[in-house]
Design a protein that fits this description.
Elements: H1 5-12, E1 27-29, E2 32-34, E3 40-43, H2 46-49, H3 58-70, H4 83-94, E4 102-106, H5 109-124, E5 128-132, H6 141-145, E6 163-166, E7 181-186, H7 202-213, E8 216-220, E9 244-247, E10 258-262, H8 264-267, H9 286-301, H10 304-318, E11 324-330, E12 333-338, H11 344-353, E13 356-357, E14 360-361, E15 364-370, H12 378-393
Parallel strand pairs: 3-13, 5-6, 5-7, 7-8, 8-9
Antiparallel strand pairs: 1-2, 2-3, 4-10, 9-10, 11-12, 12-15, 14-15
């Protein structure tokens, strides 16, 4: 008996939940997915901020094809000089403030966080890491140790020692950043908490406390980077500079790629005592680097950062309903918070039935994410907002 794709998926592909969506996609173009039956879905999640240029964008596809014709993987990362890596690294550091000048390529956001934590411990010689409640930084062992929700950790204890969790936007906890702290890891805008922005100069106050104690400041820009929030990097909204910054998701232009970036002085500590202080086989894969650079150049050349601001403002204007408390966020990094007039379960089903892909946040169940590809047009914003409002109206309790 021949198994269907769905049967193979359920039997032979590792699952992340007991009830996966099981939406089968045959192809994707622009902001749309298409099933084998031809049904169209509008992507308002972008693979959780991955697909900044949508799906099948010629700039990325052409770059992938051109690099694939030259070479794929050659050697474990860091041994050979490869122009896709050097070209992209040059672009990145030219768009970051000094002294963020050395890029260490990895495979994913989780590995970028792991590398950044190791670098901070190696450079400072200190054991402690401070992170924040309702933050998500990845699912590997170290990244899970700093996740801001104990329910995600319980099945995997013991995790890394020396981790302190604080509340985002609560300056009273900052005294727990001490001379034993290697680094403070935080998102400039908390993503899975429901798009929570820093308030009352909170990032600046964390920066000042780090300066006072000698702790390093690590920004997780994995979801927020590369134009998503209406600035190239979210930390630029707040004029606070990190010591280390982590990238992934849209960094690869739709291909798997991550990085942590710091000063030359810091990064050199990974080269000795011991050598190979951090090592990765596929980090900085040439096809991923070519795709990532092509995506960022397109975003820059076509002014999609400003476009994200304009389209985000349009969503805010359109998403008005008595079941919505408010829409928060920056650019095309938005959370729509609904109130008790709305059944969340019905809402998500009606949105899906209307052919829209959104998702709820890990740590905020009464809101859903709007984070479409940055190429979304005004017409597409209006059409998707109409369908979202229809779903809200049909989800009243």
């Amino acid at each position: 008996m021949t198994l269907s794709n769905r049967q193979i998926f359920l039997q032979h592909v590792g699952q992340t939940s007991g009830s996966p969506l099981q939406l089968e996609i045959e192809r994707a173009r622009g902001i749309y997915f298409y099933t084998p039956e031809g049904k169209r879905y509008t992507d308002l999640v972008s693979g959780v901020s991955v697909s900044a240029l949508g799906h099948g964008h010629p700039a990325v596809v052409d770059a992938v094809k051109a690099q694939a014709d030259k070479h794929l993987h050659l050697m474990v990362y860091g041994e050979f000089v490869q122009s896709p890596q050097t070209n992209y690294a040059e672009w990145i550091v030219n768009h970051l403030p000094v002294p963020l000048e050395v890029v260490y390529y990895v495979n994913s956001g989780s590995e970028a966080i792991e590398g950044a934590m190791k670098l901070a411990k190696r450079f400072t010689g200190r054991p402690g890491i401070v992170a924040f409640n309702k933050a998500y930084h990845g699912s590997t062992h170290g990244a899970m140790s700093i996740i801001g929700d104990p329910s995600f950790q319980m099945g995997y204890l013991p995790l890394l020692p020396g981790i302190t969790h604080l509340d985002f936007n609560d300056v009273s906890g900052l005294e727990q950043i001490t001379e034993h702290t290697a680094a403070v890891v935080l998102e400039p805008i908390q993503a899975e908490a429901g798009i929570i922005e820093p308030e009352h100069g909170f990032l600046r106050k964390v920066r000042e406390r780090c300066n006072d104690t000698g702790a390093l400041m690590i920004f997780d820009e994995i979801q927020t980077g590369f134009g998503r929030t209406g600035e190239l990097f979210a930390f630029m909204h707040y004029k606070v500079q990190p010591d280390i910054v982590c990238f992934a998701k849209s960094f690869g232009g739709g291909m798997p790629l991550g990085a942590f970036v710091s000063s030359r002085e810091m990064m050199r500590t990974l080269t000795h005592h011991p050598a190979l202080g951090h090592i990765t086989t596929f980090g900085g894969h040439p096809v991923s680097c070519a795709a990532g650079l092509a995506a960022q150049e397109y975003i820059e050349q076509h002014n999609l950062v400003d476009h994200a601001n304009a389209m985000g403002a349009l969503y805010r204007e359109l998403m008005v309903h008595d079941g919505i408390d408010h829409v928060r966020g920056k650019g095309l990094f938005l959370a729509v918070q609904f109130n008790r007039k709305i059944s969340g379960k019905k809402l998500m089903q009606h949105i899906f039935d209307n052919g829209i892909i959104v998702d709820q946040f890990l740590f905020c169940s009464n809101a859903f994410r709007i984070a479409p590809p940055l190429i979304i047009t005004e017409e597409e914003v209006r059409e998707s907002a109409t369908l979202l409002l229809d779903a809200l109206e049909r989800s009243r309790i």
